[in-house]
Amino acid sequence: MNVRDQQAENTKNAILQVAAKMFLSQGYQATSTRKIAQELNITQPNMYHYYKNKKVLYIKAIEYSVNNFSKNLLEEYSKTKDLPFEELLNHMSKYMIENFRINYFVMRNDIENFFTVEERTSLNNNWDGGYYKVLFNIFQSHKSELRSDLAIPVQVGTFLTMLLPYIEYNDAKRKRNIANLNTVINIFINGIKKE
């Protein structure tokens, strides 16, 4: 790759990093491409040279962020996969909360309200391909310990539904959520009913 191509690649990645940070914290509607360009000290036309409009930039920024996070999550899983189920689930959940900064409910609202069915499908597939895959591996590798009347995808989906509200952008909320994580996972695994 020549110097010019490398500079272009660096600019594209810098745009994605800043856009992802803004989109994931503020949402689609509250983030302007002008602010993204200003943050990078480039012009909007320069940014649109790489990403033709705000929607394309949003989709690419989310993909970039999720792909990077998924790669790191998979590496963390590889290092800890031999832990007992509850400990592993707790560890990986804590890792997700600590390392993926997102305002999840704002993002889901944005995707539902500002994107076409095709765009939503693309975003959802990318989103599910990362952390879902790791959690599926965790549940699958411990399936002998889990209920056989509930399919693994149902168990993973239910766990994610419970976990996602704990993944926040705000530092104080994330710390509070981590403090409550053991209890939530214990309730998920063992229920609340007396034996």
From TrEMBL:
DNA-binding region per UniProt: 32-51
Listed InterPro entries: Homeodomain-like_sf, HTH-type_Tx_Regulator, HTH_TetR
GO molecular function, one term: DNA binding
Pfam families per UniProt: TetR_N
Top-level division of the source organism's lineage: Bacteria
Entry keyword set: DNA-binding
Record domain HTH tetR-type: where: 9-69
Protein name: TetR/AcrR family transcriptional regulator
Classification of source organism: Bacteria, Bacillati, Bacillota, Bacilli, Lactobacillales
